[in-house]
């Protein structure tokens, strides 16, 4: 048994990754003769994710899983997972982002001569620019390091002609596997909230879960809703609200106990307004 493998398989909406990791589990067993420094035979990944899916957590688990298998790839550096958001650079300006990427990876290597591990690059700003010279330069740079890095290119855009063109260009330079991650529906997220509350010694009854499902469904309609993170913030606010009362004898909460968090509550309306303000100010988080 492998705890990282098991945790990955528990993540809802990552079924395509579950299938891929199952293949890698068999591959790891068959690569016992691989020596340190041998090239990585794992394909690089183009991963579509929705805002709030929890890319860092998921890929952190993937890095831990791969390292635990010993035979899939080598790790050298201060971190196992390096993440970089690649800003767009127009052709008439210098490709400063590539320099920043190189410098950041050198820093991730620490005192070692080179970095070996997972390299996740967000390419959202490059959708529609796959035929430009700087995108080709980026792909050439990544291709030169694919024997030492497992490269994960992430996109939050939905699959369309532009993203398929980006996929095709990337596949000219890298061996790629395309994965699609999906956030669970509101009911699944309400069940996740129930699991999250267990660490506080609290759970929800059926009526409370129904209320939460409707509230989460409304929050999901916010353009920059952040999935698991939003649900966890909602749970934390519920814990703060109910456990800061003068007396708190309950361990099972009903809809009546959390009525201040219903879909029509001031709490949900405030969250919608605050989200809109953050968008207006230019904040973006994953």
Oligomerization: single chain
Average pLDDT taken over every residue: 89
Largest sheet data: 5 strands, parallel
**Number of helical regions:** 10
Order of helices and strands: HHEHEHEHEHEHEHHEH
Low-confidence stretches: 276-286
Number of strands: 7
Q: Roughly what fraction of the amino acids lie in strands?
A: 5-15%
Overall outline: globular
The helix content is 40-55%
Provide tags for this entry.
286 residues; alpha/beta; five-stranded parallel β-sheet; 10 helices
In short:
This protein has 286 residues and is an alpha/beta fold. Helix content is 47%, strand content 11%. The chain has helices at residues 3-10, 15-30, 55-69, 96-109, 133-143, 161-171, 186-197, 206-219, 227-243, 266-281; strands at residues 44-48, 81-85, 117-122, 149-155, 176-180, 203-204, 252-253.
